Amino acid sequence: MKAMILAAGLGKRMRPLTDHCPKPLLPVAGKPLIVHHLERLQRAGIEDVIINVSYRAEQIIQAIGDGRAYGVNIQWSHEATPLETGGGIQKALPLLGEEPFLLVNGDVWCDYLPANTQLKRGDLAHLILVNNPDHHPKGDFALDKGRVLTQGAQRYTYAGVSIIHPRLLAGQPTEAFALAPLLKNAMNEQQVSGEHFAGHWVDVGTPERLAALEQFLSQ
């Protein structure tokens, strides 16, 4: 299974830290955030990684290279301007191929990666859901007997980690668009599975949460 790391965002919530440094290269526990992702993917046995880049793209590419230093093979998907999650994946599909792939948001920290066997035949996505953090108390989706639903009494937050089948994006335009509406449509068709992860997870979206993660890892 290949993996894709989403790293093309502008990092606006991270300013002023990202005024001169792209978010994937922000240091945490002595190494860039994206390197933690690459090392975790390598430990999971994933060798081929596609990374989309836009803001300060050359800075990221120069720092990371072809991935050999981390035991993986990296291919870069360039976006002249950020294409949002859906558009970024759509542009990278020629590199990803026709099989399901692991999708990881570049600005999260998660101690868990799902296996490719978690995506069952006929499903279009398998999502990792976590307990709602203080900054997102209402969550995103519900989970019932392994199926992810748009509505439900007990709601969880999407962790930014999932397995995606390329068919989820079939027929979509080659332009900027969000992934969430496609996922919700697939949920309504009972084509999205999921699981709850109760371990350590952080949306590293602000300087304060980056500092909190640094403190956690230093302990």
Commentary on this structure:
- A hairpin with a 2-residue loop joins strand 2 and strand 3 (31-32).
- The chain starts with a strand and ends with a helix.
- The protein has one domain (3-218): Alpha-Beta Complex (Spore Coat Polysaccharide Biosynthesis Protein SpsA, Chain A), CATH 3.90.550.
- It is an alpha/beta fold and 219 residues long.
- The model has no long low-confidence stretch (mean pLDDT 93).
- The strands form three sheets. Strands 1, 4, 5, 6, 8, 9, 10, 11 and 12 form a nine-stranded mixed beta sheet that branches.
- Helix content is 24%, strand content 27%.
- The chain has helices spanning 33-43, 57-64, 84-96, 180-188, 207-218, and strands at residues 3-6, 27-28, 31-32, 48-53, 73-78, 101-105, 108-110, 125-130, 141-144, 147-149, 155-164, 192-196, 201-203.
- The chain contains five helices and 13 strands.
Looking at this protein, list some descriptive labels.
two-stranded antiparallel ribbon, 13 strands, alpha/beta, 9-stranded mixed sheet, globular, Spore Coat Polysaccharide Biosynthesis Protein SpsA, Chain A, about 220 residues
